[in-house]
């Protein structure tokens, strides 16, 4: 039996190791890095533009606060229209009025302040006679300032 075992062992072939794998190509990694850098640049440029309109709008609100009270709300309404037109060039926001305009502002700022809150005064009420229970312009300006700041940091949906 031992002879048969030795014969069997003699008949076995030698073990050949597979060739070493080639070095991985670096071009897919390079392409991925370029795509990541390009995406980051686009994001940063977009963020810079958003920051720019944000700063302009806040400066405009400061200027509006210095006006007479009877002009403040009208100027805030004009500012809101300019901000909306700046962000949606494909949508004809200049023609929106009344309830549709308030609904658009709610969608734009991700709120219900304009359709259900004090912001309703930017609809048809803006040009009507002031009532006894009119909201102070400082309060409205403060809320619009808050919405603009929120839009820049959390509600970016352009």
Structural class label: mainly alpha
Largest sheet: none
Anisotropy-based shape: rod-shaped
**Ends apart, CA distance between termini:** 85 Å
- What's the overall average pLDDT, rounded? 81
What is the oligomer described by this structure?
Answer: single chain
Helix fraction bin: 55-70%
Proportion of residues in β-strands: under 5%
Give the topology string: H per helix, E per strand: HHHHHH
Q: How many DSSP H or I helices?
A: 6
Rg value: 33 Å
Stretches with pLDDT under 50, minimum 5 residues: none
Q: Count the strands?
A: 0
Description:
The chain is an all-alpha fold and 158 residues long. The protein has 6 helices and no strands. The chain is rod-shaped.
Question: Which features does this protein show?
Answer:
single chain; 158 residues; 6 helices; mainly alpha
Provide the fold topology.
Elements: H1 2-11, H2 27-65, H3 69-87, H4 98-109, H5 113-116, H6 137-153
Helix pairs in contact: 2-3, 2-6, 3-6
Q: What's this model, at a glance?
A:
With 158 residues, this protein is an all-alpha fold. Helices cover 64% and strands 0% of the residues. Helix 2 (27-65) runs antiparallel to helix 3 (69-87), helix 2 runs antiparallel to helix 6 (137-153) and helix 3 (69-87) packs parallel to helix 6 (137-153).
